Amino acid sequence: MPVLVMKFGGTSVATLDRIRRAAKRVGVEVAKGYDVIVIVSAMSGKTNELVGWVNETSPMYDAREYDAVVSSGENVTAGLMALTLQEMDVPARSWQGWQVPVKTTSAHSSARIEEIPSDNIMAKFQQGMRVAVVAGFQGVSPEGRITTLGRGGSDTTAVAFAAAFDAERCDIYTDVDGVYTTDPRVSAKARKLDKIAFEEMLELASLGAKVLQTRSVELAMRYKVKLRVLSSFEEQSDTAGTLVCDEEEIMESNVVAGVAFSRDEAKMTLVSVADRPGIAATIFTALSEAGVNVDMIVQNIAEEGRTDMTWSCPNDQVKRAEKAMDAAKESGVIRFDEMIADMDVAKVSVVGIGMRSHTGVAAKMFRVLSNEGINIKVITTSEIKISVLIDRKYMELAVQALHDAFELEKSA
Amino acid sequence: MPVLVMKFGGTSVATLDRIRRAAKRVGVEVAKGYDVIVIVSAMSGKTNELVGWVNETSPMYDAREYDAVVSSGENVTAGLMALTLQEMDVPARSWQGWQVPVKTTSAHSSARIEEIPSDNIMAKFQQGMRVAVVAGFQGVSPEGRITTLGRGGSDTTAVAFAAAFDAERCDIYTDVDGVYTTDPRVSAKARKLDKIAFEEMLELASLGAKVLQTRSVELAMRYKVKLRVLSSFEEQSDTAGTLVCDEEEIMESNVVAGVAFSRDEAKMTLVSVADRPGIAATIFTALSEAGVNVDMIVQNIAEEGRTDMTWSCPNDQVKRAEKAMDAAKESGVIRFDEMIADMDVAKVSVVGIGMRSHTGVAAKMFRVLSNEGINIKVITTSEIKISVLIDRKYMELAVQALHDAFELEKSA
C-alpha cells in the first residue's frame, strides 16, 4: 500500500481533544488506503518547559543530557496518539527514535539524520498495522545516546521518513493554512499560494517565514519529497494548504512568489579599516569563530588605503561581534577607527524562481522603495532573491508597497 | 570502589531545588569514595498527570502504549539530576532503562526485572565517572518495547541495581524519616525503628504501610541487599532512617515490631451456601478470575449441608466480586441464599519475627481488643503476623490500645 507521512506540530497536539482531531484526519487517509507514518511534536509549551529546566539547572549544559531531557515530550504525544487511533479501531503503535532506529550523527542538540532503516516498520505494515506513530525531533547516536535535531526538527524527521519510505507525500499539519505571499498580519492583501518551488520555500524559510524548518526543505528538495503545508484546524481536502514541490510541477507562477522580512537584524560597520589583501577574510574569520552568523556584506572604499566594512547579523549576536572585533583590534590583527552597530534595521526580500528568466526585478524593487522615500542601506542578491536592509520603521510600508507593485494578490 | 545505590522518590525530586538538595547528598557519598548509582522517580505529580491522560484517551488502554507514555517522567528527572551533579563537578551521566539495558518480562505495566548487565555502567565507573543516574520504574522487553514495573516500581529498580552491582547498601530517600511502629498520625506514641527484619517489612508493606513497594522488599530479602529508608528532608547521617536487613543483624527486638492497619477493606459473606466438596475452590477460582484479590477467608458451618463463606477484599473490588458471584449463581455453579457486603470494616495487624519464639501474642491481642469492647469479625494469622477485621470506627482505638499493650514506644 502507498505510504503517506503526516506531521502534526505542537499546537495540533496541544490537548487530548486536538490529538483526537488529528487522529481523525489520519483515519481519513487510512480509509483511502494509505499506510500512514505520523510524526508528532511535543504538546505545545512542553519542550519550552523542559528547555527552561535544563537552562536553570545548568547554564552551560551537557548537550547529551539536554537531549535526554527535552526529547521526552514527543514520546508522550506519540503514545497518546497511538492510543487515540486504537480507540478509533485503527491498528497503530508508537515508536521512539531509538526504536526505529532513527540513526543520527553525535552532534547533540543539532544532530543530522544519517539513516532510517524501514524494515522494522514495514514488517508491521505487512502484518496489518496501518499507522506508525513516531516521536519527532529525536534520534540515536552511534554511541547509543539520545540526540535531538534542533528546534523545529520534527519537520525534518517527517521529510526524512517520507524519503526513507518513498512516501507519496509528506503533509505538515500546523497552525497556519499554508504559505503566503507575505505575512497576512503585515499586508491584508497577502494571498495563500497553492504551490511553491523548493528553492523559493528555502529562501523564504531562511528569511524568517517560520512555517518550516529550513533543513526539512533542503532534504525534501534533495530527495524530491512532495511537501504539503496545511492547517490542522480547517476542513480536510486534497487541495488544501500549499504544496512545496519541484519547480517543474508548477505550470504558471508569478515572477515574484513572495515578500519576506525579518526584524531581528542588525547592521554593523567598521569605519576606516586599514585595507590590505586578505583583510575581509581576517574580519569574517574572526566573526565566524565567535559564532556570529553574518548575512549581508558590503565594502566601501573610503579613501586610498582605507575602507569601510559593513555587515548584517542577528540582533542578539551584536555583543559577541563587538567583543570579537575589539579583541582583533587589540591583538593588532586588524585596525579600524570606529565600530557602529545599528539595531533599528529590518531586512525585506522578494523571492521568486521567475527572476532567473525575468530581468528588471531588482530595478523595480529599488524604484518602489525610492518612491516611498525609503533609503536602502545594504543590498544582497541571489539567483532567486533580492534582499535590502532598511530602517525598521519603514518595514511594513516596504512590504505592502512591494506586495502591491508585484501584484502578489493576483495568482498567475 | 564500593558501589552505593541511592533512590530518590517523587517528592524528593519534585522541584529543581529539591533535585539540587538530593544531588548534594549524592556528592557527600561520592566524597566518601563510593561510586554511586542514583535511581530517580518522576517529579511528584508527573506520573499521575500522564496516567490521567492515558485513561482519558483510552479507558481500555494498550498497556504497551501506557508504558511508553508514563515512563517519560523518569527520563526528565534522570537528565536533570545528571546535569545538576555535573554543575557540582561530579562526573555523572544519565541512563534510560533501554540504555542499560534493564531487561524485563513483557508483562507491560507490571513487568518484572530479569537481568541488569553491569558491564556498561561499570566501564564508565572505571573511566572516572562517579555517578550513574538511572531512570527508575522502567525497562525494556525482549521485543524492544518500553515496560514499567508498576506504581512504586522505582524502589524495585533500586534494589535490583543494588543486587546486580553488589552494592554496599541501597538507600531509599523518601518523605518520611523511616519505618515506624505504627502510623504517627494514628498513635502519637509511634516510634521510629532503627532496624527491621525483611520479613517484618514485607508484612508491613503488604499490610498497607506504603513506605516501600512490596516487591522491592522481596527482592532485597532474596539477594540480601541492605535496604535503608530515610528522609531526604532531614540531616544526613550514617545512622539516619531505618535499616531493613536480615534478622540475624538485629541483636535485640521486641516480640511485636509494629501495628499495621488498612481502611480499604471490605467483608463479604455468602449466606447459606450449598456445601459440597470443592465448593471453596469453585468460589475462589471465580473470584480470582474476576480479578478480586481475596485476603482473609473464614468458613462457618451453619447447618448440615449448608455453610456461610466469608472473605475480605479491597473496597473497590466489591462490585466486581458481586458480579462474579451473581454470574456463578445464575449458571448454577454455586448456590447461596444471600450475599452481604460490609464496607465499614478495617484490618488491624500486629507483626513481629519474635512471634516465632514467643507464644501468647494472639491471646494478648484478642484480650486487648475485648477489653476495649471491640468485636473481632475475622481472624487470620501467619508465622509472624496476626490480623483481625473489625468495625472501621474502632480502628484508631484498636491501633492505640495494641501499641500500648505491646509497649512499642519502648525500644528493645
UniProtKB/TrEMBL annotation, chains A, B:
Carries keyword Transmembrane? Answer: no
UniProt keywords (A-Z) are: Amino-acid biosynthesis, ATP-binding, Kinase, Lysine biosynthesis, Nucleotide-binding, Transferase
Q: Which GO terms describe its molecular function?
A: aspartate kinase activity
Which InterPro entries does the UniProt record give? AceGlu_kinase-like_sf, ACT-like_dom_sf, ACT_Aspartokinase, ACT_dom, AKii-LysC-BS, Asp/Glu/Uridylate_kinase, Asp_kin_monofn, Asp_kinase
Pfam families, per database record: AA_kinase, ACT, ACT_9
All residue ranges annotated as the ACT domain in the record = 268-353
Q: Which PROSITE patterns match?
A: ACT, ASPARTOKINASE
Q: What is its EC number?
A: 2.7.2.4
- Spell out the reaction equation it catalyses: L-aspartate + ATP = 4-phospho-L-aspartate + ADP
Pathway note? Amino-acid biosynthesis; L-threonine biosynthesis; L-threonine from L-aspartate: step 1/5; Amino-acid biosynthesis; L-lysine biosynthesis via DAP pathway; (S)-tetrahydrodipicolinate from L-aspartate: step 1/4; Amino-acid biosynthesis; L-methionine biosynthesis via de novo pathway; L-homoserine from L-aspartate: step 1/3
Question: According to its UniProt record, which protein family does this protein belong to?
Answer: Belongs to the aspartokinase family.
| NCBIfam families tied to this protein | asp_kin_monofn, asp_kinases, PRK06635.1-2, PRK06635.1-4
Q: What is this protein called?
A: Aspartokinase
